[in-house]
Please model this.
Amino acid sequence: MRSKVAGIVFISGSLYYMLAEAISATFFKASLYNTYIFHTISELGIPDANSPLFWLMNSAFIIIGLTLLFGNFYKFKDYIIKNKPIFYILTVITSLGVIIVGLIHGGNPLTSGHHTLGAIMAILGGNILLMLISRSMDEFGKYQKTTLILGLIGFIAFWIMAFNMESIYMPVFERLSVYTMIVWSFLTGIYVVSHNI
Model:
């Protein structure tokens, strides 16, 4: 029962995030293509005329943060054999980071520092968490290898983004570094439901 609940939460949280971003992007004051390529995810959460559905995007940040926090502590922790203290710490850092991003939007000089800190906690912490998870379970099968690959892709994309902040394609690397965790959440929901322990 716990596996099914956790699985549903992981899957629902990831689907909500992707749907909320797609809807927010659709109503953003730019073409859908330009929004995804040239505008960051954070821009969708800024309450201004460009993003009329900013509240929807921010709700997605908060929900995916709560999804990770609940799913990992409620059930997924049972699959972690090694490095449990670090697993718990990184889960909290990542979850709080995403929630901060949802509560404190960018674009405001007074709060942009907190927003940036939350983003670093979420993206860097999250992808390190994926790499840790892949090597902390009782086997290294298809799921663990996929988790490791996702973590590596997100980790590399984060650093490319960090050193190319002025590039017009920076939002692409931002999305690559974020989507790895969303995909992982969806796959983990399926994994937890099908591997009931």
User: Anything to note?
Assistant: The chain has one domain: 2-194. The two ends are 10 Å apart (CA to CA). The mean pLDDT is 96.
